[in-house]
Task: structure prediction
Amino acid sequence: QLQLAESGGGLVQPGGSLRLSCVASGFTLDYFAIAWFRQAPGKEREEVSCISADGGSTTSADSVKGRFSISRHNANGTLSLQMNNLKPDDTAVYYCAATGGGTTSLAKYYSHWGQGTQVTVSS
Result:
């Protein structure tokens, strides 16, 4: 069974940091572009950052540029999102997702999704 599983979410104060991880099972991530999405209550799911299959290309939403960094480790099938200088607006459920196509910000093209991990930024 093809699965993605996120971890690393939690409660953090504004200005703090968290590192999210995503692990694949049942398939290899080597040939998939991977992304982190997030969805806050009452808002649409939005892409945070994505990375190409070979790791050579990344994109990030303007709201997180300079604060979040995406990376992948194909050898052990993991994806990471380092989040620094977190803000209350970053509060959301964060999902990792994989697509067999190229990098895209459109959720509909991602065929594999994790269950999500909650990130709450609050004092």
Summary: The longest strand covers residues 18-25.
